[in-house]
Design goal:
Layout lengths: L1 E5 L6 H12 L3 E5 L4 E4 L6 E4 L2 E2 L5 E4 L6 H13 L3 E2 L3 H8 L1 H10 L7 E2 L7 H7 L5 E5 L8 E4 L2 H13 L4 E5 L7 E8 L2 E9 L14 E4 L4 H14 L3 E9 L2 E8 L5 H7 L3 H12 L12
Helix pairs in contact: 1-9, 2-3
Bound molecules: adenosine-5'-diphosphate (ADP).
């Protein structure tokens, strides 16, 4: 197959590993920067040009669209879908998963366990919002945050109120969430490929930090997950419509709760922690499933 990896940085670990795995399996592969693609939007012969050349021979694409370029990046993925190119994660699914509130609402609707979460636009009734999620301690999260930035633990009612007021003063979008204390600063990242959990790791925050992000100095190790955790991860990826997903769970007293479903999960931490060839598993899934016009939405929606 001719595979395109839609990524701005060929040197990133995940991009490089996917390219390597595709080559090892006999495919030709190109890393294409979505921001350098330009497109015509016509009903008869849509095209994609890249650095002065028309892309005509791509069979399948692996979108690795960073959060900061979601808008243009998903438009490029949509155009590939219009051309009938198989995209392992579809544009609508990527867009859906990037909107944290929408994702949580979709998951809640299907009965997936979530931390009790509240959000509001109005600056009034802060106290009621706090009560709604069970009072302090609670977690306040900026919606635009990634890698643990903008995730704050407010341990007392006063702290909760001042953090909320501060975020409001900045006109930031945020949510307030029940603090899952019993997770003890750990979370579980499950990698789902084609409806199966192919790897799972436990991440632990550095001493004194309740956030387990590896970018913040957390550590990761392979973990055995329970059948309930497995089915929660698989169902969450399915609800989002993602063939490849990183599902982040917390182990709460009332079972696994989902924090986030990521459409471009990083491969470095999970391959290191588990010793598994996740990039190879992703390419293998494409080999079995890629065919022209097989993306479900074909760029609709
Ligand atoms: P980001 O998307 O920026 O990584 P997350 O929502 O994943 O933000 O939060 C970062 C980390 O903070 C998580 O990996 C988890 O360890 C911790 N955390 C987030 N929400 C909660 C919560 N409600 N209860 C306990 N810990 C949490």
């Amino acid at each position: 197959m001719n595979i395109a990896i839609l990524s701005r940085k060929p040197e990133l670990y995940s991009t490089a590993r996917l390219a390597e795995a595709a080559k090892e399996r006999g495919h030709s592969v190109r890393v294409i920067n979505p921001l350098r693609c330009y497109m015509n939007i016509t009903s008869h012969q849509p095209t994609i040009h890249y650095k002065g050349e028309e892309l005509t021979d791509i069979d399948a694409a692996i979108p690795r669209i960073g959060a900061s370029i979601t808008f243009y990046g998903t438009a490029v993925v949509r155009q590939f879908e219009m051309l009938g190119v198989y995209c392992i994660n579809e544009s609508v699914a990527i867009t859906r998963s990037r909107d944290k509130l929408r994702s949580l609402q979709l998951l809640a609707r299907k009965g997936i366990g979530l931390p009790v979460t509240g959000f509001a636009n109005s600056t009034m009734y802060t106290q009621d919002l706090i009560d709604m999620v069970g009072g302090a301690p609670l977690v306040v999260k900026l919606l635009e945050g990634t890698q643990g930035v903008g995730v704050v633990l407010a341990e007392t009612p006063q702290a909760a109120e001042s953090v909320i007021d501060a975020f409001r003063g900045l006109k930031a979008n945020f949510m307030v969430q029940e603090y899952i204390k019993e997770a003890k600063g750990c979370d579980i990242r499950c990698i789902v490929v084609g409806g199966k959990v192919v790897a799972a790791m436990k991440r632990k925050g550095k001493e004194g930090d309740f956030r387990s992000n590896l970018h913040r100095g957390g550590t990761a190790s392979a973990v055995r997950i329970t059948p309930e955790e497995r089915s929660t991860a698989v169902r969450s990826a399915k609800i989002m419509g993602l063939n490849v997903a990183g599902v982040d769970l917390l182990r709460s007293n009332h079972g696994p709760v989902v924090m986030e479903v990521n459409s471009s999960p990083g491969l470095e931490g999970i391959e290191d922690a588990t010793g598994k060839d996740i990039a190879g598993i992703i390419v293998e899934y494409m080999e079995k499933n890629a065919a022209p016009n097989k993306t479900k939405t074909k760029g609709k929606g």
